[in-house]
Amino acid sequence: MRMGQPKLLLPVGDKPILQCTLEAFYNNVTRTVVVIRRADTRLASFLQHQNVDVVRLSDDTPDMKQTVLRGIDFIRDAYAPADSDVWLLAPADLPLLETTAVATLLTHYRRNQEQVLIASHQGKTGHPVLLPWSWASRPSELLSHQGIRDLWHANDVVQVECGVSVIRPDVDTPEDLEAIRQWPADQ
Question: Which of the listed CATH numbers 3.30.230.10, 3.90.550.10, 3.90.1210.10, 3.40.50.620 matches domain 7-181?
Fold first, then answer.
């Protein structure tokens, strides 16, 4: 715990970091899945009051790939998505993630049905990433030294201009949190 406490529950304004991130998805998606560490009881308690599916890792891992694989397994078992369905991926520590970015990716996908869409602004990519459900098996095909980002670096992706800055900072240190709390509203 680099932050002295679970960072996703630290406040940005009057809300925890995770709630800010989740709100970017709520009006745009059918279901939201949050994968957490097995022993993270405080986070699990907070998530009981959110409209999300909570999935626990069987073993703690710093590897985002394992977290994504666990989430995909849950979605496959709980919802049996069709290949025409999509999933969005973003880290949970992005309290400045814009609802507009999520909506823009979904609208663009409905019109064009491209493979992978990545939110961008002025040529820079950020979050979220939209992947067709037909890609759900691809993270498990990554080599041990490859991370989730290798999925879209090794394949053709379409950058979708979201009209808002999607290059928002995440929260890894106390300094990051302070910078986010001071982030100008017009950026």
Answer: 3.90.550.10
